[in-house]
Write a structure and sequence with these properties.
14 helices; 72% helix
């Protein structure tokens, strides 16, 4: 009995040590976060595109939390993105244009929907979850389409007046304020997500994804943790939608479309699910390729983009992030030396 207790204590100490080591920031991570700052000066004429990259990256992180770490498949994640966009947009259109409080309200509203729908999502297997998430998004899309008096319908929500960030930084036509605003929000929420996945809660999510049948035997409340991460992912998506609404000061009906959910899933697979940096890198690769190829060949750019995606899937197992991990291993950097999280 004493031997078993001693072994359990040693195992717990080892797990705690591993979590602390994984939570430490590595040098490549600091370099990675310097790149968007450099991009601001290198590509001053593409700040709108860079801002959209930051917003989409946050949206992709929200899906990675529920799919990559918890294993909850979803084809309707745009429901939370669109709800957050409409929440912030309606607030700004009705006199509440303070951006930070708009983000907070959008996060709360999307989290509430996430918590409610989690009761349905967790009842079935993967196919059931796909249908439930898709059904929720389709219902919200049709509601937004029919309630033209509130959402503007196909014409979109207009008339938004967003106040300066912190009362000092006004949104300009060039997109400088929008870029820094989106980048700072992305970094802060990425930092929070990074702390989450490196916590015992995040370790439990990985265990649930790998073998959900064994986790109850370890005393882990599976459904409670899945509902919690699903709610958190919904809140992150709501913030991303609110950022989009505030930086563009317009909300189109397609924020709730199936295409947005499908494209997001494609980006996550491209970058590598189960890795927060994979979500970021996948966003940059996809949106950069989209921008360059559509400029080079406006008529057939989708063909070349599809070919690029197929090549990455065929030759880079686990996405771009998986390829980077294998390259780092060949160079002898080790799993904890690169941007492996």
């Amino acid at each position: 009995m004493q031997t078993a207790t001693l072994m359990n204590n040693v195992a717990n100490n080892v797990a705690v040590t591993q979590l602390k080591n994984a939570d430490r920031w590595q040098a490549p991570e600091f370099v990675f976060w310097l790149l968007p700052i450099a991009a601001y000066f290198v590509f001053p004429d593409n700040l709108v595109l860079l801002t959209q990259m930051a917003i989409t990256a946050l949206f992709c992180i929200s899906l990675d939390l529920i799919l990559g770490y918890a294993g909850i498949v979803s084809l309707g994640h745009a429901a939370f993105f669109g709800l957050g966009a409409y929440t912030a947009g309606l607030l700004a259109a009705n006199g509440w244009g303070e951006p930070l409080s708009g983000l907070a309200v959008a996060a709360l509203v999307s989290a509430a929907l996430g918590l409610l729908t989690s009761l349905l999502v967790l009842r079935g297997a993967d196919l059931t979850r796909l249908m439930v998430t898709l059904g929720v998004a389709m219902m919200l899309f049709e509601l937004a389409n029919k309630m033209t008096w509130l959402t503007g319908g196909v014409d979109g929500l207009q008339g938004m007046e967003v106040q300066p960030v912190l009362g000092m930084f006004r949104f300009d036509m060039v997109g400088k304020t929008a870029f820094w605003y989106a980048l700072v929000v992305l970094f802060l929420l990425f930092w929070a997500a990074r702390k989450l996945v490196h916590s015992p809660f995040g370790l439990g999510l990985k265990g649930i994804r790998l073998n959900v049948a064994r986790m109850p035997a370890l005393g882990a409340p599976v459904n409670m943790r899945l509902a919690a991460v699903y709610t958190i992912g919904a809140a992150y998506a709501g913030v991303a939608g609110a950022l989009m609404a505030q930086t563009t000061q317009f909300v189109a009906l397609d924020v709730l479309s199936f295409n947005r959910s499908a494209e997001l899933l494609l980006i996550l697979v491209l970058g590598g699910s189960g890795s927060l940096y994979g979500a970021l890198i996948g966003t940059v690769v996809f949106m950069s390729a989209h921008h360059v190829l559509s400029d080079m060949n406006p008529e057939y750019w989708q063909f070349w983009l599809g070919a690029l995606l197929l090549a990455i899937v065929l030759f880079a197992r686990d996405g771009v992030m998986g390829g980077l991990r294998r390259a780092a291993a060949r160079l002898g950097l080790g799993a904890n030396q690169g941007v492996a999280q």
